[in-house]
Design brief:
alpha+beta, 3-stranded antiparallel beta sheet, 5 strands, disordered C terminus
Length: about 140
């Protein structure tokens, strides 16, 4: 995993040694395989794979683009961020993920939460970076 992606995770994470995001994690392995298949076909995004990997990252510390640390928990079909009273629904998360994939397939760099344009994007952006949904910035030649 690149250092840029890890920089989005809160550095004082209490349980960082217990979170296994690398090889051997079945949910992450399945997600990475699925991600490579859907990169250019966003409509085939599986909500089940996405939700499974989000459940794996529950209680992990992340930082928003502005550096505000947060965690989340999953209850039913909702994500509850510890800094908000409202939840982000599974449908909104799926919509956001599809938007990200569509924009990237068009060559648009998703450089921040505003590019996602959905409720909760400031919290979804670092999570999407962590799981590889948002790729590192493209070369200028790729954007044309």
């Amino acid at each position: 995993m690149s250092a840029e992606i890890w920089s989005g995770i809160y550095p004082n994470m209490k349980n960082k040694d217990t979170v296994n995001l690398g090889k051997g994690n079945k949910a992450m392995d399945a997600w990475n395989m699925h991600l490579s298949e859907i990169r250019h076909c966003p409509e085939n995004l599986s909500s089940e794979f996405l939700w499974q990997v989000l459940c794996e990252l529950e209680q992990t510390y992340f930082c928003t683009v502005k550096g505000i640390p947060f965690t989340y928990i999953i209850k039913g079909h909702e994500m509850f961020v510890n800094r908000k009273e409202k939840s982000i629904t599974q449908a909104t998360i799926l919509l956001s993920a599809r938007r990200v994939l569509e924009k990237q397939a068009e060559g648009v760099v998703v450089s921040g939460p505003k590019k996602i344009g959905t409720f909760g994007a400031s919290y979804l952006y670092p999570v999407f970076c962590q799981i590889g949904l948002i790729t590192e910035k493209m070369n200028e030649s790729e954007v044309m």
